Amino acid sequence: LFNYEKAISLDSNDPETLKNTAFIHEHKKNYKEAAKLYEKTLELESNIAGVHFRLGHCYNKLNQFDPAIKAFEQSIKLNSDYKVNVSSYVGMCYAFSQQGQYGKSIEILEKVTAKDCSIAEAFLCLGNSYKQASRFPDAIKSLEKARDLEPNRLDTHRLLAFSYLQIKKGDEALVSAKKAIELNPDNFEVRVFLGDAYMMTSKWDKAVKAYKKCIKMNSTDSHSYYNLGCAYVELKQKDNALNQYERLKQIDQAKADRLKSAIDKELSDAE
Predict the structure, then answer these.
(1) Which of 106, 246, 256, 268 stands the most exposed, by the fewest C-beta atoms within 10 Å?
(2) What Cα–Cα distance (Å) separates residue 54 from each residue in 13, 63, 79, 129?
(3) How many CB atoms are located within 10 Å of the residue 6 CB?
């Protein structure tokens, strides 16, 4: 990086040097600096499709979605490489989704994936757009395709676990949540999904262990305390359920009241 930046100081009008330095900054997650250098590169030579693509990626990382869309559109216009264009469509549709334009993202990606597409990222992005639009059966179909193309991607299994839970497919959610945890044991969200899937499949003891792990990771997560209490209710462990109620009162009174009602209803005769 030092050598490239030294070269820039000597010749700030060399597109190749600017582009290479920008790429290094992007790789180091210095997206703001990378974007500036990509922009300067395009001022000097505006028809480099790859630079438009990389600039769009940086804009997405900076949550600047309108310029990201424009950058990806320009990349698509300039490039005839199908795989690069698919990646540009994915980046553009990610920006649309972040703006809440799920329908626009779905419309574009349905056309992209209808072709002979073997790029997992396209199906993942489409599945995520379906999920955000609450079209969970469609999300699952697309995400399963992404999983088949790229079996070890965390986001695919994470989104699959969530989508399966939404349509009450607990066994399938368990498989996806376990795979996601295998890929990243420290992901709190999929730990919660695992607990939810155990609850859905009436595996109360395993749900208890899963939610205890969640609470160790995030001691203020009301969802985990509530469901842990509910698991204890199912196991007829009144004292443990009441302990969760007492903890939950400090975090979320509404959920605490719901848990107490379940305890009173189901365990009124328990000691």
Answers:
(1) 268
(2) 19, 14, 13, 22
(3) 11
- All residues at 6 or more sequence positions from 145 whose CB lies less than 8 Å from its CB, including other chains: 113, 120, 123
The amino acid that residue 138 corresponds to is D
The answer to whether 162 and 193 are in contact (CB under 8 A) is: yes
* Burial bucket for residue 223 (CB in 10 Å: 0-12, 13-18, 19+): middle
d(CA 114, CA 16): 36
Distance between CA atoms of residues 191 and 231, nearest Å: 16
User: In sequence order, what are the residues at sequence separation of 6 or more whose Cβ sits closer than 8 angstroms to the Cβ of residue 220?
Assistant: 251
Cβ neighbours of 138 (radius 10 Å): 18
Instruction: Let me know if 30 is exposed, middle or buried by CB neighbors in 10 A (0-12, 13-18, 19+).
Output: middle
Q: What is the pTM of this model?
A: 0.87
